Structure formats: C-alpha cells, structure tokens
Amino acid sequence: MTASLDLADPNTDPFEVAAAAAAVIAERTGAERHDVALVLGSGWGRTGDLIGQTLVTIDNADVPGFRKAAVEGHSGSMRSVAIGDTGKRALVFGTRTHFYEGHGVRAVVHAVRTARAAGCTSIVLTNGCGGLNPEWGPGTPVLIRDHLNLTAASPIEGANFVDLTDLYSERLRELAKRVDPGLDEGVYVQFRGPHYETPAEVQMARILGGDLVGMSTTLEAIAARQAGLEVLGISLVTNLAAGISESPLSHEEVLEAGRAAASRCGAAGQGGHQDRSRELSPVTADSTVPEADPTLFAAAEAWLADDPDASTRAELAAVLEAARSGDGGAGDEAAAAAVADLADRFAGMLQFGTAGLRGRLGAGPNRMNRAVVIRAAAGLTAYLKHDADHPQTEPFVVVGYDARHKSDEFARDTAAVVTAAGGRAVVLPHVLPTPVLAFAIRYLGADAGVMVTASHNPREDNGYKVYLGDGSQIVPPADALIAARIAAVGRWRMCRS
Predict the structure, then answer these.
(1) 197 annotated active-site
(2) How many CB atoms are located within 10 Å of the residue 163 CB?
(3) Assigned superfamily of 357-487
C-alpha cells in the first residue's frame, strides 16, 4: 500500500482510497458498477454462493486499503457475483476489519465506502452475535431494527452531523420478510471486543434496550448512512449471550452455529438480494417490461410543469421518454430501467431531519434539486415565523454554500424564498466552510442559517443543513416542525432559467 493510500495516515482522504479501490475492482471485474454490496459475518459464508454465479474473485491484498482476513470463519477475498438472472451484480466482501484489530475506524468502514464508490446504492451487513432472547436459539437470523454503538468511536470525521433516525431501512426489512416471514427484529449492541461480554455487560445491554450483542456492524452502518447507502442489517444468533446461557462462550461455537444455519441464511440473503435487485430494475426473469403505473407518468408530467430548472427538466423528460418507449416486448431492458428510475425519483419527498436534506442530484421529489430546495426554504421560513422558540415576522437567515454542483444556485434560491416571504436573507460572498456560516449567524444576529453542502458524501450528492440562531445545528423537535412545514408547502413556481 502506498503512503498516499494509507488509511492510517491522518492526511489521507479515506474517500480517495475508496475511489482507488473501486477503480481496481472495476478493472478486475470488467464491470463499471455494482448494484448492491454484502458484508459476510461469521456464519454467513454460504450466502455469497447462493446469490448467484461468482464471476470474479479478487484477493483483498490486491485492492487498496484492504487486508487479509484476521479472524477464522472469514474469507480473505471479495467477489463480483451475478444476482440470479437480473443482470445486476453484487459486490460480496468475504471478511471485514474488526475494530478490535487496532487498525482504526477508517479501516473498519473501508469496504462500505468502497461499495459506494463502486456504484452500490444498498448494502447488507451481516454478523454472528450473542442473543439476549432465550427464544432465539443458535442459528436464528434476526433483522437489525436499530443499534447501540458502545465502541466510543465514529467513522465520521469533523463537524459532519448525520441523521441516524431510520438507519436500518424499514423497506428492506419488509423485503427480507417476504423471503422469510418468520424473521424477527431486534436492537444490536456493539461492544469493542475481542473479549466476549460479561454477564453484567449483557444485562446492561438488555436494560438499554438491546436484543443482540456483538463486535461489528454499527460503525459500518453509520458510514453507510453517511455515504448514502440504504442499509439492511441481519444478525445470526450463534449463541446465547453470557448470563443468558450457563455454557461458556467460544469462537468455535459461533462457527458451528453458522455452519448449521447456512441454508436458511443463504436463502434469506439470496432472496433479499434478488428482490432488491428487481426493485432497482423491474426486469423479470424473462426480461419482459412490466406495465408502468400510469400515475407515475402523471407525477412526472406534473413535476416537469413546475420544475424551475431547465437542466433537470431536460433530464426528467429524457427519462420519461425512455420509460414510455417500451412496448412490453422481450428484451426491452432500457425502458424497464427508465421505469425503475422514475419509480425511485418519485418514491416520495426527500425526508428532512436533524441533518437537514441530503440526496442525489437530479430531477424529482426524491432528489436534490431547485424545486426541492425551494420547498425546504419555504418550510423553514414558515417555521421561523410561526413555530420557532421566538417567532419572527421578518426572519433573518444567513446562507452559505460549498463548491458542489448547484450549491450556489440552491443558496440563491433559499435567499429568494426567504425574501419573498417577507424575511431578510444574506448569502455569503463565495464558497466558505461551515464554521464561517456558524460565526456569521452569531455575528449578524440572524435567526437561522442554511449551509448547502454534503460534506464527505459522494460527489453526485448534495445537502441542505439548517442551523439555529446560536450557530448550532437543529435538534428535535425543530426538525419535525420544519419537516411538517415543508410537507405543507404546495407547488412553487419560479421564473424558469
């Protein structure tokens, strides 16, 4: 590993290392992108075999930032796997770097960041764990609903505040339950390891709301959210946790339980991946194009009529035309892909939380664009006038922006909306970091601030963060109140450019 790609070097950008790793994977596999990623924990080895045909296997040591497996029961390679007959590919990591190995958090989450750089939009994180519910015997897979991170560490560096409210996708959990209706859900608790938990620690985890205990996953899940990946977490209960069972714990017990449960875990992983892939591209096994919901086309047409941005109008018009070009005949995968693209763009509005808005740039309510920003600005202004701790008839907002694509336009749109609603707005004179905005809010006595930035997220993303009058990022219940105001905003028209 060259010095410039050394994750242990604090001067190295970990996202550049991930990009370099993704480039090697693309070269070795001959695939420009992969669609979903899978990190295999203890007991999950067979899952990669059942997803589909392994097309290429790459030794971890040949990819920047990766190491050989350090734990028995893990493979030291990654694979490019065909997901059944969908035409999609899964990037399957046969091992993970555990926090207890001492290589730092960057190494722990490197596979996640590499998956995103390789084009993946969703990731499945699996692990072997101890169970706190006596009804979950060894070999029971459990969906992760939420987690407790007890490592005292985070993969996010700097003042980048990422909302983890819905970290583990409810939608993907429902997909998994279609494959295996008997799946339960629970809260996963990560300890640092490598020692197993004491009975007292297990009781603490239970009191805090935990159902599962282990030594992985939460740091990777946090990094996945920061990167914009949709996350499905699945734990395999390999043993009852200390104090729940009278038997002493051993790693061989973990491996044996995994071997015994291989078929069920593999089937769940296979089905979940294939369902997710079909949802991303609704090409069925015989490659026919399904009939698109006419309301989807109507929603796209309505969006086109109100979109103030010529570039996103043209983008959406092209997707709509491609979606309508299918005649339902075999082999028309381009039309099917366009329908899937439309469905994703109109799956709902980007959700506003404590971290504001963040999403991929593009046309549609589920993307970051001028129309979405205008609605957000209108909702924020209404919040400042009616719901804030100190409502203002003429709210004063300072707006900053970074160098990402369209950040400056989003900043100007925000100022225009605030002003049109009777408030005052100041846009910082050029690209400046977030701390300058926080200072400007306090120095100018503003009621709130907006920073148009996506920090370390992929370059195709952008974001919209809101700060209070003291320069701090919003906290509950302000986020929910702003979200409600945004939801109440009707269509907004602006002079088209």
Answers:
(1) yes
(2) 16
(3) Alpha-D-Glucose-1,6-Bisphosphate, subunit A, domain 3 (3.40.120.10)
Burial of 477 (0-12, 13-18, 19+ CB in 10 A): exposed
Q: What's the rounded mean pLDDT across residues 194-221?
A: 95
Taking residues 384-397, what's their average pLDDT? 94
Q: What is the pLDDT, as a whole number, of residue 329?
A: 47
Judge contact between 398 and 336, C-beta under 8 A: no
| Domain boundaries, given as residue ranges, for the chain | 3-280, 294-345, 357-487
Q: Which of 16, 135, 197, 333 is catalytic?
A: 197
Cα distances (Å, whole numbers) of residue 253 to 72, 140, 208, 268: 12, 14, 26, 22
Strand order in the sheet with 448-452: 357-360, 461-468, 448-452, 396-401, 424-427
Q: What is the pTM of this model?
A: 0.57
**What is the mean pLDDT of the segment spanning 473-496?**
75
Helix (H, G, I), strand (E, B) or coil at 220: helix
Instruction: Find the helix or strand (DSSP H, E) in which 254 lies.
Output: helix 251-260
The amino acid sitting at 86 is T
Find out whether 46 and 262 touch, Cβ atoms under 8 Å: yes
The mean pLDDT of 266-289, rounded to a whole number, is 42
Helices (H), 30-126: 45-51, 105-108, 110-117
Assigned CATH for 3-280: 3.40.50.1580
Confidence tier at 261 by pLDDT (50, 70, 90):
low
